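Retro notes
What went well: the complex prediction finally ran end to end.
Inputs used:
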Amino acid sequence: MTNTPDLPGSIDPSMPATIMRSRPAKPAASAEQGAAPGSGDLTDELLNTDQWTDAMIQRAGIPVADIPFVSIGGGIGSFVTVDYLRIAGVPANRMHVLSNLDFPWQTYEYLTRVSQIPRPERIRSDSASRPDNIWGFPSYALTEAFKEGNWAELWHVFAEPMWADFYTPKAGRVFEGLEREAKRIGWHQMLVKGQVRMVRKRQGGGYFIILTPKAGATPTKRVAYRAEYVHLAVGYPGLRYLKELQDFRTKHQDYHHVVSAYEEHEHIYEAARTKPVTVMLRGGGIVASRVLQRIMDDREKYGTQTQIVHLFRTFIDGPHSPNEKTLRAWNKRSGSNGFAYQGFNYPKSVWGGQLKAEMRKLEGEARLTRYKEMGGTNTPWRRRWQAQMGNGRREGWYHIMQATVDDMRIEGDKIVSIANTRNGKLEIPADYIIDCTGLEADIAEHRVLKDLLDHSGVGRNPYGRLDVERTFELRGTASGPGVIYASGATTLGGYFPGVDTFLGLQVAAQEICDDLARRRFCKKIGTFRSISQWIKWARNKQP
Amino acid sequence: MLPTLGGRIQSRIVFLAIIGGIITLILTPILPLGSGALSAKYKTTFLILLTVIVLGVIWEFIYHLIMQWRWEKDWPTFFGLVTLINEGVVVYLLADYGIVPGIKAHSVPLSAFLIDFLVIWICVWLWVNGPMRVVNVRWRFHGGRLV
């Protein structure tokens, strides 16, 4: 949600803002100066007041539009929530989505594509986690079976995870479904393009949301929305790099040889096709697996001679109980060769079963401990990957080790990492380093969230993210009858763990929708409405 | 499925009672149950259905215990189907030995039992793995609980 920063190195201008923030930030600007009253911009009075009155906005000359519900973000989190509310009977003209994205899956598609999941490849998501279908029926597997005659996929759903890998949908199918549903619910009618600058409480109830539309699109620099309900789904506040990689990039201004897996890095695979190179991977999650698969696929397809050195900070070499000293039979996750294995990013039952019910009751430290016991970096165990990695280890082109890196230097045309391994210090040369750790930035790095933390009484949960109720209401932000809700990655650490996933966003959307039904903003989705709306979905008719 | 213990038991009772009840109602007259009054046949099939429900609640405790050894704390789709073997065997033996109150020993032909039991089991299994999510949007997120 920030304006485009000055970025070193080349960068795709169409890259979503989420990615932009991962680049080195400009030096912190001094406290913002207010504009003159009547200028249509934020005045000192507005900047420095926690609760605004209608008169303050009027004095600033900012035009105001009334809309009962505003969702900020415009990604899949906003989409799923608005989809639920449309199905719960809210007309499109009572909701706005404020976003700098052209379509809801823009950031997601960018991230999956650069991290080696183009449209024909499969994402790490369950068959019944359909962001374009609140019911998850028919599942992706069933749809794929019927539409493509790919009945073998149903075998996955039947036999997973014992005799088949978990079924996962193709990225392209997910995006096509979202496109269809976006048209059906009138997404573009609700979408307002621009950068959200802040949300502040309104004296008398509700909120003001300040939007900065594209320059020249409106007569004033800012426009305000007066809303009773606000929904925040701003996604990841940004990515962080491993410190030594960031230091190296800044010192040597090298954004070519040391990259994040979430940046465009096709040049590495292209270089590998022209000469033998050594690629160092950092991290043991799904993104590392994907990058690894791409390199291994290229070895098979093009006969490349790429050597891979894979560094794990936490090296898992067998079954383990995360965060516990003793291996417990009832809390045992499988692992080998550095990786911890798990179908999805949390144990499956956090999305509806035992772990969901259990976490819902936990507070503070107890909740944080439980998060640690089921969390940590992990990746799915997939037959094909295991076979490829096994070949690599046997043939001596895939090297794994437990290590952290103290320092890096350039030596000739190589980057040498000085690694701390179990066997002492080791100097490891590589042509390219790909950071697959996917570290996330603090929520305060997001401008809108920082403003809420500073001005609206928003707190942090034990995990350090936004503190939400079980209904996903942002604690401390009630304003008269008004409520701010938040869903997605910014709320990790709450009563529900799987927030930053398709199904997690739907769980949150359902809670929000039910809460709004209690407040009489929408209808409750009971059996009759659910069935009749599902039929409309199936016939592609407006809700 | 991603059940909780309470959700398992509720789903078990409600789906077997409703789906099982409807199927039993339709299927009983055409089952190879030999000669005899239709009311007696219904009595037998509904008593067997009731036995599956009552014993099923006990089974759910066992399944819940087994699930604790699974890292994901989930209950794979396959488990939901394959448990028809252990449950079917126990119910049939109890019926055949005359342990089920109201059913005489050796009075239920195996073929009739198999048809009735398998049809009900597969229909309930298909229902919980798909269409049920349309009837109740909260059910799958609440561990199978209905109330």
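What we learned: Chain B has a mean pLDDT of 96.
What to try next: split runs per interface for comparison.
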